[in-house]
C-alpha cells in the first residue's frame, strides 16, 4: 500500500483492517508518550511557580497559613458540598509545628483570604517558613520595622549573597591551593597567606551572622531567624504575573545549576546532570570500538559456521540478562578484582582506605559498557550485512587490500548502523539504576569528578546520577509528599538529557548517511 493511499483514506483491496490497527497502535503510543511528558512537565515545572499563600481562619478561631495542595473526600461520606471533604495545606514551619502538612475539614473553615504581607522564607535548615515579617535587626538593634522591614530584608539578602560569593571564592581560589602547597612541604610564605585568608574568612562569617529576622506565624507565635540561614524570601500574594514568571525562571535555573540540599528534597541537581552525561559519554567511548570490532570479526572475518552462529546467539541472549547481574559482575570483577589489584600495586600507602578498590566513575562506565555491548554488536552487524557484496568485490578488484576495503568502503557505509547501536546503548544506559548502586553511584556527591587538579578527570570518584537521584528521593526521603514535585522535575530532566544525547547521535548518523550515500536495496 502506498503512503498516498493512507493519506487519502483508501485501503488496497484484501488488506482489511490491519493497516488501520497498525496506525492506531502508533497513534496510541504517541498519545501515551505525550501524556507522560505533559504529566512530568505539569507536576515538575509547576513546583517552581510561586503559589499563592492562603490565610485560613477556622470556626474555633485557630489560624493557619499555607499553600493549598489538594482536596480529598473522607471514605464512607456521600453527602455533597463541603461535608466530609478535607483540604491539604503546606504550612511549612517545621521548627514550630513539627511538620509541614495540615489537613483541614472544609466545613470547619470560617474564612480564607490571601493577605499581601505574608512572606515565604527559603531556609537552609528546617525548610520553608510562612508568616509575617515584623523586623530586621542587626546586633539586636532594628534596621527596619513595619513597612520598612521588607525592602530592608531584600537589600540585606543581596549583600549577604555577595558575602557568600566572596566566601566561596576565598575557599576555592586561595585556601584550597595554599593548603595543597603546604601538604607538599613547609612553606613560610604560604603559611602567612593561609593565616590571612582564614582571618578574612572569620571576618566574613562574623559579618554574615550579625543580622536576624523577627517573624510571626499565622497564629501569633514569634520566631527569631538568623538571616545567614535564609536563602531567599518572597511575598507570593503581592507578586504580579511578570514577577511570578521571573521567579519561576529563576527557580528552574537554580534547580539546574545548584547542588542538592536537605537530603535531596531541596536544591538542584547539577552534580547529577554532570555525572549522568559524563558517565554516558565515557560508556559510549568504551563500548563503541569493542562493539564495532566484534561485529566486524563476526561478519567479515570469522568463518560462517556453527561456532559463529552460536556466538551470535550468545550475544543476543546477553542483551536480555537483567541489569543487576551486570552490576554484580562489575562489583566482583572491576571493583574488587581489578580495583583491588590497582590499589595493591600503586596505592599501597593509602590502604586500607581504597582508591580504585571501591565504586567510582570508571567502574560504572565499564559496567554499563558491558551491559550495552550486545546492542552495539547486533546493530553494527546488521548494518554490515546490508552492504552488498559487490561493494566489497569492486574494492578488491581495484587493488585494495582487505584492510583498505574494510576501512574505506565497508565501515563508512556501515557508520549509520553503528551510530544506531550507540543511540540504543545511550538510551538504555542513561536510565539504568540497579547496576550503578553497586559500582559507584552516590546519594550525595556535590563535587563533580572534574576539577583543576591533575589528572583533571578523576575516574576513581563517586558521582551522582539522575536515575538514582529519582529513586533515592522518591523512596528514601523523610517526606515523600514534599519530594514528589522534585521527582517529577528530575524525571522530566532525565528524559530531556537522553533526548539531547540521542538527537546528537541521530544528527551525526544523518550526516554520515548523506555523505556516504544511501545504501542500495538488496
Describe this structure in words.
The structure is a single chain. By secondary structure, the chain is an alpha+beta fold. It has two domains: 54-257, no CATH class; 270-516, MetI-like (MetI-like fold, Orthogonal Bundle). The protein is 56% helix and 14% strand. The chain has 15 helices and 13 strands. β1 (54-58) and β2 (63-73) form a beta hairpin. α7 (270-301) runs parallel beside α10 (361-385) and α10 (361-385) packs across α12 (402-431). Residues 518-522 have low confidence and may be disordered.
What brief labels describe this structure?
MetI-like fold; disordered C terminus; 14% strand; single chain; alpha+beta; 522 residues
Short overview:
Helix content is 56%, strand content 14%.
**Residue-averaged pLDDT:** 85
* Cα radius of gyration in angstroms: 30 Å
- Topology as H/E string? HHEEEHEEEEEHHEEEHEEHHHHHHHHH
Assigned CATH superfamily of the largest domain: MetI-like
Domains (count):
2
How many strand elements? 13
Kindly report how far apart the N and C termini lie.
20 Å
Biggest sheet: strands, sense, closure?
6 strands, antiparallel
CATH topology of the largest domain: MetI-like fold
CATH C-level class of the largest domain is Mainly Alpha
Structural class: alpha+beta
Backbone shape = globular
State the low-pLDDT regions, or none: 518-522
- Tell me what portion of residues adopts beta-strand conformation: 5-15%
Total of helices:
15
Annotated CATH architecture of the largest domain: Orthogonal Bundle
Helix content: 55-70%
